[in-house]
Amino acid sequence: MTEEGDFLERNMGPVEIAKRARLAARRLASVSSETKDLVLRKVADGIDAARDAILEANRADVLEARTTFEEISLSGSLLDRLVLDDVKLRAMAEGVRAVAALPDPSGVVLSRTLLDDGLVLEKVTCPIGVLAVIFESRPDAVTQIGSLALKSGNAAILKGGRESARSTAALLDVFAKALASFPEIPEGALSSVADRAEVDALLALDEHIDLVIPRGGYDLVRHVKAHTRIPVLGHAEGVCHVYVDRAADEAMATAIVLDSKLQYSAACNAAETLLVHRDAAARFLVPLLSRLIDAGVELRACEATRSLAPSVPLSAATEDDWRAEYGGPMLAVRIVDSLDEAVDHVNRYGSHHTEAIVTADAAAAEAFLGRVDAAGVFHNASTRFADGFRYGFGAEVGISTSRIHARGPVGLDGLVTYKYLLRGSGQIVATYSGENARPFQHRTLS
Amino acid sequence: MTEEGDFLERNMGPVEIAKRARLAARRLASVSSETKDLVLRKVADGIDAARDAILEANRADVLEARTTFEEISLSGSLLDRLVLDDVKLRAMAEGVRAVAALPDPSGVVLSRTLLDDGLVLEKVTCPIGVLAVIFESRPDAVTQIGSLALKSGNAAILKGGRESARSTAALLDVFAKALASFPEIPEGALSSVADRAEVDALLALDEHIDLVIPRGGYDLVRHVKAHTRIPVLGHAEGVCHVYVDRAADEAMATAIVLDSKLQYSAACNAAETLLVHRDAAARFLVPLLSRLIDAGVELRACEATRSLAPSVPLSAATEDDWRAEYGGPMLAVRIVDSLDEAVDHVNRYGSHHTEAIVTADAAAAEAFLGRVDAAGVFHNASTRFADGFRYGFGAEVGISTSRIHARGPVGLDGLVTYKYLLRGSGQIVATYSGENARPFQHRTLS
User: Fold this and answer.
1) Which chain A residues contact residue B113 at CB under 8 A?
2) d(CA B204, CA B12)
3) pLDDT digits (tens, 9 = 90+) for B261-291
4) pTM of the shown model
5) Nearest C-alpha of chain B: how many angstroms from A119?
6) Which residues of chain B does A385 touch, with a Cβ-Cβ cutoff of 8 Å?
7) Which of A382, B130, B213, B381 has its CA 20 to 30 A from that of B282?
8) Torsion (CA) A28, A29, A31, A32 in degrees, nearest 10
């Protein structure tokens, strides 16, 4: 990533960038943990040192975003995410140092088996290869994903949002300088494309790119999923439920419902629909809904709920409400006759993200945990716990609702795969085949 | 799977079959290990009991295949795979019993973390959901995949080859009867489609199908990979290499090369290209190549090889040979100047399946193992060891060259994913946020 490298990159198309990333990934896979951590600390120091330049670039981005606000319909919260300041920059540098301090997810021996004397099979984690990361206005995605990719030994191709182009470029420059000062780090380990059109080109390169990570809203993720055969790590929707069972405690149910909906209502793990067992509804539906309304939540309710709580202002829920990710202080409410009905509703309308049951009945809880088809199923806890940091992963790559590869909140583990290493002393398969076949030992080693 | 069910299935389109499979998968996920194993033993007994009917159906398939041999260009080896006899049928029933005897891959606790007092996170394996399995003429794929899918709690939709239609139907009938005698097993747990057109319809159903497993030749796998967004477990090609390093022992190198090429030359893990370090070539290339020729191997060699071994009958290798999967007794041969050149050749032309180095130099071996980008990398052992049974997995679902999800030979583990179960006692995220945030404990439990 010398200046010449930068120049080349500006003149490279997506195919050339991806091919170079593949070659870089192969070299990066055998760079030592120590070197990778030194590079990351240099990146962190670089962010501190380049503070003025980064903030200046960011001010230009923000100015343009404000000017063209209506034209590009950049919402207020996107603008909040775009704005950098001293505090955010320090946090970004600390975030990179924290990634450096994590254990290397690559090179971990997952299992070791003695196939026969002098023939040992190891299953060892290794980087996946080439990641393409597509994110919207948050410039901190650059440092987060850049550091996680490098830590795990993957090459990464980044595409930031148009509105954060200058901030992204300033941060990438910090990375480029740090990477270039270590000869072990191959050119192309971290690269970027700037054009929206180049994203669609990248998404077609399933020969060269192994995993796509979209970080952004529903539209971005849907677009990515619909336009690529490359595996996607992410989730388009978070339609999460809290089911208040017949045997739920009123105070606990109220606290969990309020937290699941309101602790951060724009989050993907916030609840969108409240399911209440008819018996629990008879006991405390009115006070529960009143608490939600007092907290500023708009409710869309089924007919049974509206009959049971005529004093509460409720508009009628339609089929669309069961599928809605409101992304704000709205909640659909439905009364169900049984745990079975709750499970069926969750499996039918949910997005397989995070689902919770509140109940004092251990058998009901285990039935719900077993039968609900989602990345996270919780008993007596808020859906908002579905998060890599809360799970203790140290860093979060994203939350996946896919059933293949990584699922749920994904830590650094989601950026490695494994390979089998077999160390022998001249063994051939003919020895273990046919009439006088020598048997395998297949003994698990520690 | 009553008679009524069979009737319905014949009138159901792929979408209805897949939707029914999704519902079945959700119920199947909580069927006990004991029940699943009882069903499998009943299937095995059913195969024994229905021997006459299965063999009669198979004879009709074989007769038609022979009659229309030229028309459908069914090769001799495909015909061999199609033919069933008493011995093969007994082996199939024993195979199903062996799957029943394996540990249940679902419900295994992968990790357990205390997030805080009374708040425990478990990562637990669970079935993936709905599998679509597309196979060619081998009728034994029905019993193998059917039993592995059921064992792991997945619903499966099978599509056999046209040439084995009657044999497949007879075996599916055995499954249907066994499944129907257990009320816990939902209808649609195992279903099938018969038409080739329906395969393409299935491949489009990424909402309802979670994993596609093609079992067959290159054309089938390429077709499947090119026509679906559903993750595919399999490999299209096996372009495997043996690299004979500078420090290789002649006898060991000769034995490993012969075994890798000839122990079963049609296998995906057979070697297609031999790379030899110049120094080793100077020591024993001529006798090594002579041994291969004596064993009936046709060689395609680089210019350097042909100069060094003018006495050996070698045709010239072209660029196509480096990419070829011969699938028979042919081998490309190339002399390289260094380990680096060998690694580069393997990473460039290989299919990331299985690669071997023969050397007495431990440092060279570790460099090769670390830098070669493949599902299996072997030192001083034949490439033919890349196999689920030889690895000790008990059963093999297939061999995957994908970097995501399962890689290399895949056992029952490849048919499960995981979910996170969080068991709390009323915890909410607000407690762990903001100024007076309570810290997490994140303590690993045994």
Assistant:
1) 391-392
2) 16
3) 999 999 999 999 999 999 999 999 999 999 9
4) 0.91
5) 8
6) 115, 119, 422, 424, 427, 429
7) B381
8) 150
Tokens of B204: 């489009």
Distance CA B427, CA B412 (A): 36
Mutate to test the interface with A, among B154, B390, B441 (most CBs of A within 10 A): B390
- Write the burial class of residue A422 (CB in 10 Å: 0-12 exposed, 13-18 middle, 19+ buried): buried
CB contact under 8 A, A424 and B379: yes
- A419 to B375: CB separation less than 8 angstroms, yes or no: yes
Confidence at A70, pLDDT banded by 50, 70, 90: low
- A210 to B386: CB separation less than 8 angstroms, yes or no: no
B407: which chain A residues are within 8 Å (Cβ-Cβ)? 417-420
Matching fold, domains A3-104+129-226 and A240-391: no
Task: Report which secondary-structure segment, H or E, holds B393.
Answer: none
Read off the pLDDT of residues A222-244 as tens digits, 9 standing for 90 and up: 899 889 989 999 888 899 999 99
* Chain segment A93-103, per-residue pLDDT in tens: 999 999 999 99
Cα atoms in the 13 Å half-sphere on the side-chain side of B291: 15
The domain locations on chain B are: 3-104+126-226, 240-391
Q: For A404, which of B231, B407, B422 is closest by C-beta distance?
A: B231
Please classify residue A198 by burial: count the beta carbons closer than 10 Å to its beta carbon, then call 0-12 exposed, 13-18 middle and 19+ buried: middle
The 10s digit of each residue's pLDDT in B32-86 is: 999 999 999 999 999 999 999 999 999 999 998 888 755 555 556 677 788 999 9
Residue B279 near residue B253 (C-beta atoms within 8 A): no
Check residue B258 and give its pLDDT: 98
Q: Find the CB nearest A433 among B30, B263, B423.
A: B263
* Interval B124-181: pLDDT, tens: 999 999 999 998 878 888 999 899 999 999 999 999 888 899 999 999 999 999 999 9
For residue A231, CA distances in Å to A196, A206, A212, A376, B331 come to 20, 9, 6, 21, 34
Distance from CA of B26 to the nearest CA of A (A): 7
A240-391 homologous superfamily: Aldehyde Dehydrogenase; Chain A, domain 2 (3.40.309.10)
Interface test mutation site (partner A, options B224, B227, B423, max chain A beta carbons within 10 A): B423
CA distance B29 to chain A (A): 7
Best CATH choice for the domain A3-104+129-226 from the list 3.40.605.10, 3.20.20.70, 3.40.50.970, 3.40.50.800: 3.40.605.10
Options 3.40.605.10, 1.20.1530.20, 3.40.190.10, 3.90.226.10; CATH for B3-104+126-226 is 3.40.605.10
3-class secondary structure, B424: strand
Interchain pair B420, A408: CB under 8 A: yes
Return the SS3 of B50.
coil
Q: Do B429 and A128 touch (CB under 8 A)?
A: no
Contact pairs from chain A to chain B, CB under 8 Å: 210
- Chain A neighbors of B129, CB-CB under 8 A: 373, 403
Q: In terms of Cα–Cα distance, which of A10, A43, A50 is closest to A179?
A: A43
Nearest to B430 among A263, A367, A440 (CB): A263
Cα–Cα distance, A316 to A335 (Å, whole number): 13
